[in-house]
Specification:
Layout: H1 4-25, H2 30-36, E1 39-48, H3 58-61, H4 78-85, H5 93-102, H6 111-127, E2 134-141, E3 145-153
Parallel strand pairs: 1-3
Antiparallel strand pairs: 2-3
Helix pairs in contact: 4-5
């Protein structure tokens, strides 16, 4: 007869050891960031309105060109860690598998993407009637972990109150 509690205990121990191994082996991401630049860890967007205009900021978030690596359970960037773990000095099949199949390369902060995002946001806001909008950004964070905070000031939207079309009848 199979003892399910011992099998379950062994599975939990195995997963715990795997998580600890991955966590401790790829903890020092600062050495990887110093070679390439700072990693993008978060984008924040705050929208300031002069008048309640029912503006949905999710549409502006889709205009941000550079997105950070995805997190597992909102805490751990496993795919980036696997990529960095597979990027060692010695290259073998396991490291290539971890790098190309399991991992995602870390996103390096690039100012050209920030300016392209601002340009896209302004174009989107113009299509929504916000012609005097202003967008500012600020990059904060540690040496190797950067956050980009976009601040959008909408202003007053242009709206069309009424329109009339006069058509001359040719009868």
């Amino acid at each position: 007869m199979i003892n399910f509690s011992s099998v379950l205990g062994n599975i939990v121990k195995g997963y715990t050891a795997l998580i600890l191994l991955l966590g401790f082996s790829a903890c020092n991401i600062a050495k990887h960031a110093s070679n390439n630049g700072a990693f993008l860890y978060e984008n924040q967007l705050s929208v300031h309105e002069k008048k309640q205009s029912r503006f949905y900021s999710g549409d502006l978030e889709s205009q941000i060109k550079q997105q950070p690596n995805k997190k597992i359970l909102g805490v751990y960037r496993l795919s980036m860690r696997l990529f960095l773990l597979g990027s060692g000095e010695k290259d073998n099949g396991i490291k290539r598998f971890m790098r190309y199949n399991l991992g995602d390369p870390p996103i390096i902060l690039d100012s050209s993407f920030i300016y392209a995002s601002i340009k896209g946001m302004k174009a989107y806001l113009k299509t929504q009637g916000f012609y005097q909008s202003e967008i500012k950004f600020e990059v904060t964070g540690k040496n190797h972990r950067k956050k980009v905070h976009y601040t959008v000031f909408l202003g007053m939207p242009y709206t069309i109150y009424s329109s009339q079309i006069h058509v001359a009848d040719q009868k």
